[in-house]
Structures are given as C-alpha cells and as structure tokens.
Amino acid sequence: MLIQKNCSLTKFNTFGFEVTANELIAISSIEQLQELFAENALIRDDIGILGGGSNITFTQNFGGLLLKNEIMGKRIVHETEHEAIMAFGGGESWHGAVLHALSLNLGGIENLSLIPGTVGASPIQNIGAYGVELKDVFHSLSAFHMPTGEIHDFYAEDCKFGYRDSIFKREKKGQYFITNVQLRLSKNAEIKTQYGDIQATLEGWGISTPTIHDISKAVIFIRESKLPNPAEIGNCGSFFKNPVVSDAIIPELKLKYPDLRTFPADAGMTKVPAGWLIEKAGWKGYRRGDVGVHAKQALVLVNYGKGNGTEIIHLAHEIQADILSKFGIALEMEVNAW
C-alpha cells in the first residue's frame, strides 16, 4: 500500500496551514487496516486519524503516521413503511450524506446541512446544528479497534453522547478507526424550524409549509451568509462550544445584558451562545497578523493566508481568558489542537 512520506497537509486541513505529515496512508478499505495490523504497523503511539480536517488545528508538522479515512459507500440496510436505516462509509463527506438522504426523501439530518467533515467524524463530535444533533438519528457504527485488530459495533448508549462529545473523545480516544455509520432516517420527518433563523428565512421566501428540502436550503443559505467558506479563507467553522451554565447566573447576566439570548439545556442548566459572548467582549473582526476573529461571525477564528496553528491557539486562549474575566463563563474549544 502507498505510504506518502513528508506529505503536505495544506489541502487536508480547512485552516489551510502549511504543515506536513511524516507518513500518511489513505485508507479506503478495512482490509488495509487489517494488513497494517498484521504487519504490526499500528503498534505505535504516534498515529493520528484524519477525516475532512475541519475540526483540527495543526500547531506543528505531524511527526507520526496519519491514517486518512477514505472508506466510501452508502446503502439502505433496513427499511420499513416509516423509516430507513442507511449505512455510510466513514470517509464519505457529511454534507454529501445529507444530500443523498434528501435525494431519497429521507429526513432527520436536513438541519445538519453543510457541516464540513466526514461521516466517520460525526459521532466523535456528536455534531449538531439548528436544534438537531447526530445522536437524534444515530443507529450504530462499526469501527476498527487498532490495539486488537477487531471490528467493534457501537450503539447509541455505547457512545455516551453529550454536547459535542462522545466516548471517542474521552476514554476511547485514538483507539478506533470508524469505518461505517448507520443512521435512522424518516420517511415522514418532523420539520424543525424553531432554532436560529430558519423560520424567518422560510417566511422571507414565502414558504409556510416547508419540506425537508426547504429546511436544508434554508440552513445552507444561513450558513453561507454567516460562515466563511474555507476555500476562500481558512477556518474550522465554530471554534468554541456554546457554554452550558447554571440557571442561577442567567438573571444577573440578562439584567446587565438585556439582549442576551439563551437556550434551554439539561435540568437546571442554560446554553449561552459563545459567539454572542465573544462579540460582546469586542473580539469580532479582531486581527493580529494573519490570524483573527471573523468579521461576520465571532465564533469563527480564521487564517488570512500565512497564519499558523500556534498563533490560532494563542488567540483562542486570550479570548477564553477575557470571556472568563468579563462574564465568569469558561469557553471550551470545539476544535482539537494537534
């Protein structure tokens, strides 16, 4: 199998950082993983797994072996009158999976349109947007366990999904290469318009009874109007998680900031928009050299061309410290630093 040496990762990370990997192998089948295991090539502690590179900040050249997930495929594995379970290869584009489901009039993931990255990465992060999370439609996944060479299946309860979180970011981190994800999609999906600007966008288009296709188009329109295209300016989308805080601090915050918008979370907790906090603190549009905070969306940190991951992380830490000082709220990075 082809092992690329000193491989440029510029096109493999959406920040566009000019970094390299000591070794990179594009994985397009489980058999390749089994071959590597048989050769004892996976018994090392410097292996990284790369999907679409949309949730990674490379702070330096990667000195180990990168396994790039390019396992493709999409098929219905089970179908009833009301739903279909569809399997996607871990290397499939997430947005491509959404569009494929829509082409079959299968709903449930239309609110997750235009999220960058691969299907295999989606359960790791428990991706979410506009009132929907992956866990809402997740059925199961299959993954190659690199320490043993076995294929393990995980169902929703096994994944321990949380807000932008899963078992694969914690105790199972780095152990599994996700080969296949199965989603439970609906033939009569519930239309969700209450989150963000979806309802207002649809009303502006004169649509009163939207379909799943309308929801997807509205989400794409909103995302494209607010978020920069990585092909035009390097970024990883939302850099920070929306913090979930105790209900007890909200009245004082709203007294001081009447324009604060909040969203319900678990019992006794409230979700506060990280972008609002960053903008309110004056960081929106801030630029230092070739890195900064996007002028239209304060939740997005950007590389204007020649920035690097270390500069991005330093900027993120400054923002975190400032938000904690001004609001008493800790921001957590959604993006992984390598």
Describe this structure in words.
The protein has 338 residues and is of the alpha+beta class. The protein has 3 domains: 4-69, Uridine Diphospho-n-acetylenolpyruvylglucosamine Reductase, domain 2 (2-Layer Sandwich), CATH 3.30.43.10; 74-186, Uridine Diphospho-n-acetylenolpyruvylglucosamine Reductase, domain 3, CATH 3.30.465; 234-337, Uridine Diphospho-n-acetylenolpyruvylglucosamine Reductase, domain 1 (Alpha-Beta Complex). It is 24% helix and 28% strand. It has helices at 30-38, 94-103, 122-125, 156-159, 198-204, 212-226, 250-256, 274-280, 309-327; strands at 4-8, 20-27, 47-50, 56-57, 62-69, 74-79, 83-89, 128-129, 132-133, 138-145, 150-155, 176-186, 234-238, 244-246, 263-264, 269-271, 287-288, 291-293, 300-303, 336-337. The strands form 6 sheets. The chain has a 5-stranded antiparallel β-sheet. The chain has a 4-stranded mixed β-sheet with strand order 1-2-5-3. A 4-stranded antiparallel β-sheet has the order 13-19-18-17, with helices on one face. β15 and β16 (269-271) form a beta hairpin. The radius of gyration is 20 Å and the shape is globular. 41% of the residues are buried.
Give the second-level CATH assignment, the architecture of the largest domain: 2-Layer Sandwich
Provide the CATH top-level class of the largest domain: Alpha Beta
Overall average pLDDT? 95
N-to-C CA distance: 26 Å
- What ranges have pLDDT less than 50 throughout 5 or more consecutive residues? none
Structural class: alpha+beta
Q: What is the count of structural domains?
A: 3
Shape: globular
Estimate what percentage of residues fall within beta strands.
Answer: 25-35%
The H/E string reads: EEHEEEEEHHEEEEHEHHEEHEEHEEEHE
